[in-house]
Amino acid sequence: xxxxxxxxxxxVQPGGSLRLSCAASGFNLDYYAMAWFRQAPGKDHEFVATxxxxxxxxxxxxxxxxxxxxxxDNAKGTVVLQMNSLKPEDTAVYYCAARPDxxxxxxxxxxxxxxxxxxTVSS
Length: 123
Description:
Elements: E1 3-7, E2 10-12, E3 18-25, E4 32-39, E5 46-51, E6 58-60, E7 68-73, E8 78-83, E9 92-100, E10 112-113, E11 117-121
């Protein structure tokens, strides 16, 4: 059974940092691109970051470039999103997603999703 479980969300002040983790099980992570998306209230899923199945290639939304870093450890079955210099507009539910082969920035291209973790940036 495929499972993606996110953790690490919470409340943080503007300018602070959070580290989100995604634990993957039930499939071979070596053959899957991974991504993080987010969804704010009343909005569609928004692409945040993605990483190739080997971890050599990454892509970021312009809104998070230079502040967020995506990484993966296939041996441990984990994907991490390090978020620095957080802004109130980063507030959303963050989702981990997986798709076979090459990465993509469209949420509709991803086969597996986690349940999400809430990130709130507020003073």
